[in-house]
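Record type: monomer structure entry
Structure origin: computed from sequence
Chain ID: A
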Amino acid sequence: MKKVEAFIRHEAFEPIRTELAGLGFPSLSVTEVKGSGRHRGLGPGETAGAGERSPNLRPKLKLECVVSDADVQLIVDTVLKHGRTGSIGDGKVFVLPVEQAYRVRTGERGEDILQAHRV
């Protein structure tokens, strides 16, 4: 199992959510976050002011989902397809290992609780 974490622009969310749901992956966690990357949160043509110490933090959405290893590339490809504008600040995608997963309601565990809702 893997956890896919994607930091994306707000406008990329709906196309990503729609396609993932259509592919059978309706379960996502979404959090509004702020952050900066290698460009310190500065957009094209922006410069840090004299004496400015903290970076400009840009609003992003953090999408999280845990999927079977076989489905990771499908999720990542969908995020990249809809999230890429080619401009600074498009975001990042991270894939992390997940050791175990449990369904709280039933106590079930393992990849069976991650079954995609294939359409």
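Annotation 1: The mean pLDDT is 88.
Annotation 2: The first strand starts at residue 2 and ends at 8.
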